[in-house]
Automatic annotation (TrEMBL):
SUPFAM superfamilies: PCD-like. InterPro entries: PCD_sf, Pterin_deHydtase. Belongs to the pterin-4-alpha-carbinolamine dehydratase family. It is an enzyme of class 4 (lyase). Coiled coil: none annotated. This is 4a-hydroxytetrahydrobiopterin dehydratase. GO terms for biological process: tetrahydrobiopterin biosynthetic process. Its EC number is 4.2.1.96. It catalyses: (4aS,6R)-4a-hydroxy-L-erythro-5,6,7,8-tetrahydrobiopterin = (6R)-L-erythro-6,7-dihydrobiopterin + H2O. Pfam families: Pterin_4a. GO terms for cellular component: mitochondrion. It comes from Aegilops tauschii subsp. strangulata (Goatgrass).
Length: 83
């Protein structure tokens, strides 16, 4: 999928962006959480869903309250395609 096609599909979801890292398209989103512990709790929730779905995103807790997630597959935006 081209980056332009991915960005067109991205219009159907709120808050996510497409990043191109070394020709790999990734879905990226960042949040601010209340504190470090809340960030870890959020990661536990994400981990439970990721494990069920068989997709394992990169999770980043930067500083004490900045959470970032990157998700990608061979077809990173397949989940955004209209049915």
């Amino acid at each position: 999928m081209s980056e332009d096609s991915a960005k067109t599909l991205l219009e159907h979801v709120t808050g996510w962006e497409v990043k191109n890292e070394g020709d790999i398209l990734k879905l990226h989103m960042a949040w601010k959480v209340k504190n470090f512990v809340k960030g870890l709790e959020f990661f536990q929730l994400v981990a439970a869903v990721a494990e069920e779905e068989g997709h394992h995103p990169d999770l980043h807790l930067v500083g004490r309250n900045n959470v970032k997630i990157d998700v990608w597959t061979h077809s990173v935006l397949r989940c955004l395609m209209p049915v």
